[in-house]
C-alpha cells in the first residue's frame, strides 16, 4: 500500500516537472486547449440543450435525455477539436517563421473552422451565428477606433435593437423558413401560441391543452 502511494507521488512529481519544461510548452498548451475546449463546450451546450429540449421537443424522457447528451457531446467535441487544431497550427507557424504574426491567427482559425465547423448542422449553425453577431459588433467598434467611421454622437444601440427586432419579426411572419429551427420554435411559442386558448387552463397555466377537448 505504502509502495503504491510512493509510486503515485513520484509519478505526480515527474508529471509536474514535465509541465514546467519550457521546451514542451507549445505542445502542452495544445493539449490543455483541447481539454478546455471540451469542458467549455459541455458547460455551454448542456444547459441550453436541457432548456430547449424540455420546452419545445416532444418524446419520452429517455429520448429527451439522449438528445441532450448528443447535443452536448457534439458541441464539446467540436470545440475541443477546433482549439486543438488552432493552437497546433499557431505553434507550427510560429516555429516555421520564428515569430508570431497577426495573419497566423486568421489562417489557423480559417483552417480549423473549415475542418471542424464546416458541416452544416444545427450545432455548428448556432455556434457560427453566435460568433457572427459578435464579429459584427467587434468590427463596428474597431472601425470607430481606427477612424474608418466617425464616432457616433449618440449611442447607436437603440437603433440597432430596433432594426434587429424589426427584421427578425418580419422574417418570422413572412419568410419563416429562413430562420433557424430553434428560433422558429421560440417565436412560435411567443407570438403564435399566445393567440390560442380554450379556457383558463391553457390561458394561464399551460401553453397548450393536452386533452382531446
Write a structural description:
The protein has 213 residues and is mainly alpha-helical. It folds into 2 domains: 11-121, no CATH class; 155-196, no CATH class. The protein is 76% helix and 0% strand. It has helices spanning 2-19, 25-56, 61-97, 102-117, 122-145, 157-174, 181-192, 201-205. Helix 3 (61-97) runs antiparallel to helix 4 (102-117). The longest helix has 37 residues, at 61-97. The chain is flat, with a radius of gyration of 24 Å. This is PXMP4 protein. It comes from Grallaria varia (variegated antpitta).
Distance between the termini: 69 Å
Overall outline = flat
N to C succession of SSEs: HHHHHHHH
Q: Strand-residue fraction? A: under 5%
Q: Give me the Rg, rounded.
A: 24 Å
> Mean pLDDT score, rounded?
90
Largest sheet: none
Low-confidence stretches: none
**Protein structure class:** mainly alpha
Q: How many DSSP H or I helices?
A: 8
* Total number of strands: 0
Number of domains: 2
Protein name: PXMP4 protein
Organism: Grallaria varia
GO cellular component, one term: peroxisomal membrane
Pfam family, one: Tim17
Topology of this protein?
Blueprint (H helix, E strand, L loop, with lengths): L1 H18 L5 H32 L4 H37 L4 H16 L4 H24 L11 H18 L6 H12 L8 H5 L8
Protein name: PXMP4 protein
Pfam family, one: Tim17
InterPro entries: Pmp4
Amino acid at each position: 500500500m505504502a509502495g503504491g502511494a510512493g509510486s503515485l507521488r513520484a509519478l505526480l512529481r515527474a508529471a509536474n516537472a514535465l509541465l514546467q519544461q519550457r521546451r514542451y510548452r507549445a505542445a502542452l498548451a495544445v493539449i490543455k486547449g483541447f481539454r478546455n475546449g471540451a469542458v467549455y463546450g459541455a458547460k455551454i451546450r448542456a444547459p441550453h440543450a436541457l432548456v430547449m429540449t424540455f420546452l419545445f421537443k416532444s418524446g419520452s424522457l429517455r429520448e429527451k435525455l439522449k438528445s441532450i447528451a448528443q447535443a452536448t457531446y457534439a458541441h464539446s467535441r467540436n470545440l475541443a477539436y477546433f482549439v486543438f487544431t488552432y493552437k497546433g497550427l499557431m505553434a507550427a507557424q510560429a516555429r516555421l517563421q520564428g515569430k508570431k504574426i497577426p495573419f497566423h491567427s486568421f489562417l489557423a482559425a480559417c483552417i480549423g473552422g473549415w475542418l471542424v465547423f464546416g458541416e452544416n448542422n444545427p450545432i455548428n449553425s448556432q455556434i457560427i451565428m453566435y460568433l457572427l453577431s459578435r464579429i459584427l459588433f467587434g468590427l463596428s467598434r474597431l472601425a470607430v477606433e481606427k477612424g474608418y467611421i466617425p464616432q457616433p454622437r449618440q449611442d447607436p444601440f437603440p437603433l440597432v435593437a430596433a432594426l434587429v427586432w424589426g427584421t427578425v419579426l418580419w422574417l418570422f411572419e413572412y419568410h419563416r423558413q429562413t430562420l433557424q429551427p430553434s428560433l422558429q420554435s421560440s417565436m412560435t411559442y411567443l407570438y403564435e401560441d399566445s393567440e390560442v386558448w380554450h379556457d383558463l387552463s391553457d390561458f394561464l397555466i399551460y401553453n397548450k391543452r393536452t386533452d382531446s377537448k
